[in-house]
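Q: What residues go here?
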């Protein structure tokens, strides 16, 4: 039976998962998706994520690649409906695309975008917000100018040895020698439209393990006056993460978009 590759754009609430990647213990997004794909394909089917999000991290645009029998290529909207009918309520498929042969959800990606959300008002401690942002609260004013100046230093190519847990992140090609270099195309802080806090948006060709959380943790420490602004350039050139600030908590982080070359898409949106 012939099959073809597909790409699903997936949202999930990471609060009740131990991450994207299948684990020996604990509930994972990958395992939940693969269980549904097995029902649709009639055989075990691997789901490959564009980014390996950690415990508690959310997604608004995770790229998930998989194969299905060729018959589904003529019913892409039906595949989306079937996925959403069978997936648990904390996972939702926004779109499905039929893709060209050779497509790979991780290796074919040219860029990924993450957003980090921080609450700086009193109500950020609400149980309806706390699982989805870093609840700093109103007692800790953040200097947006300091944050923005730090973010400007991230543009371009850097080796993020000093601001990540390890090499071999969501865009790694599996090289034997660890590769810490990432090319950052966008890094900016902005106030939330409702005045309840700030957001950090970053887009790069690849990310290392916990890189965004280490970046946010360091920038927030600087904005709160816990460490001088001059520390940030030094962290960007450090050979290890021994001087880094603690990483920001996972619940404020969202994978919001993954970009692929247009020629890899075989059909229209579902």
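A:
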């Amino acid at each position: 039976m012939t099959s073809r590759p597909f790409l699903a754009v997936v949202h999930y609430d990471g609060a009740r998962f131990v991450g994207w990647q299948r684990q020996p213990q604990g509930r994972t997004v990958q395992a939940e998706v693969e269980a549904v794909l097995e029902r649709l394909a009639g055989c075990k089917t691997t789901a490959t994520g564009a980014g390996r999000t950690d415990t508690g991290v959310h997604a608004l645009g995770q790229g998930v690649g998989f194969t299905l029998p060729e018959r589904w290529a003529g019913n892409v909207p039906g595949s989306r409906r079937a996925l959403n009918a069978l997936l648990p309520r904390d996972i939702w498929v926004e779109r499905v695309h039929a893709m060209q042969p050779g497509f790979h959800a991780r290796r074919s990606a040219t860029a990924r975008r993450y957003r980090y959300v921080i609450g700086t008002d009193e109500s950020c401690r609400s149980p309806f917000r706390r699982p989805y942002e870093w609840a700093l609260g109103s007692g800790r004013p953040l200097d947006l100018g300091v944050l923005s100046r730090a973010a400007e230093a991230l543009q371009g190519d850097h080796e993020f040895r000093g601001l990540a847990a390890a090499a071999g992140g969501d865009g790694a090609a599996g090289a034997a020698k660890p590769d810490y270099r990432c090319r950052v195309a966008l890094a900016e802080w902005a106030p939330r439209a409702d005045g309840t806090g700030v957001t950090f948006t970053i887009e790069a060709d690849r990310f290392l393990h916990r890189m965004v959380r280490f970046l946010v943790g360091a920038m927030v420490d600087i904005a709160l006056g816990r460490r001088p602004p001059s520390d940030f350039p030094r962290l960007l050139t450090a050979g290890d993460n021994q001087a880094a600030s603690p990483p920001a908590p996972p619940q404020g982080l969202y994978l919001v978009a993954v970009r692929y070359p247009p020629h890899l898409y075989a059909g229209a949106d579902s």
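A: Context that may help when evaluating the design: The helical segments are 29-41, 76-86, 144-152, 211-223, 231-236. The first helix runs from residue 29 to 41.
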